[in-house]
Amino acid sequence: MTKARCNDMFDLSGRVALVTGGSRGIGKAACIALAQYGADVVVTGISSGNQATVDEINRMGRKSIFVRCDVSNPEDSKNAVATAVKEFGRLDILVNNAGTATVEPAEDTPVEEYDRVMAVNLRGLFFMCQAAGKAMIEAKRGGRIINIGSIFGRVGSEIGASIYHASKGGIVVLTRALACEWAKYGILVNAIGPGFIKTEMTKSIEEAPELYRLLRDRHALKRFGTPEEVAGAVVYFASDASRFVTGQNLYIDGGFTAW
Prior knowledge:
Rossmann fold
């Protein structure tokens, strides 16, 4: 394969992506990376910080808009997809990045907290997939859906995050099910399981030296990852380089799950 052909396989020119939770961390890095490879990007979320991501993409010469979307509300997800199609004429790529977490002992977790986490991490992700999937099926061009899960969808822990574990584990199986169901439409569905990535979510860990060293050394590479290292996998799954890949879950975890 020539270098030019290899580059072409990652070219996203002419494609439109929708990314949930694009204001910071992995979501923002995914938005920027997709734009760098040629995609126009619809950035969704509930915070005003998403507009900064939009502005950065527009300065790059790509087109980007912000659509306010609370993924726990299926109507918001439908509206975000409809807006993407209306403004750009198509939707080719969905990146489900929005998520939330909680730390509660399993024996004391209230129903309301369980429902809150599941409403975003699993229920919300499903209905965003549904909205985007319908648009892709109707367009008859195929598509790519990339679900951001976690290593906590594979391993357990004693920190009191059982609901978070369950929600992320559900993403793995849902990804496989949708991959099988929508393959006939040319829609490829894959997941990414990040490990400990340097984001706002891990800031408190890095500020606790003993805990940070303990978790850092659990990684084969002896460090936390960066959002940009996860974004590379997003581009791969969004591009023609992965056109024979569906139903997979790729761990970007520095070897955390290799032990």
